[in-house]
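User: Hey, quick favor. My workstation is busy. Could you predict this chain's structure for me?
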Amino acid sequence: MNEHRIEVDIYRDGCWIVWPVDHRTALAWLHKKGCDKPKHVHELKGSDGLSVRTKQIGSVIFLAEWKSTPEMHAVLAHETLHAARDILNDRGVREKRKHEEATTYLQQFLIEKALTRLMRK
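Assistant: No problem, here it is.
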């Protein structure tokens, strides 16, 4: 299993990327980090990825695997949008058209940092 923390200094927050994991190893990883079990972590079963927000360590993106394919890049984009919204929501920035740029710039940052690590040979 691999893990990488992306620091989002401007918000004093971050996002973990953890791969490859299944439902069982995701729960074990969260437990090891001292996190409460998120309500929807069961959604990782049969899925390529899942983003959860924890009180203890912030956002976590679990990927069932990583292959540099269009499908997995799309999964990463999907999950980083959830993470970006969670980070901003914790700061009182609600989903509105006027906040869209803050969300998309943060998503772009998360994708770039995640891909930099995921595509390392």
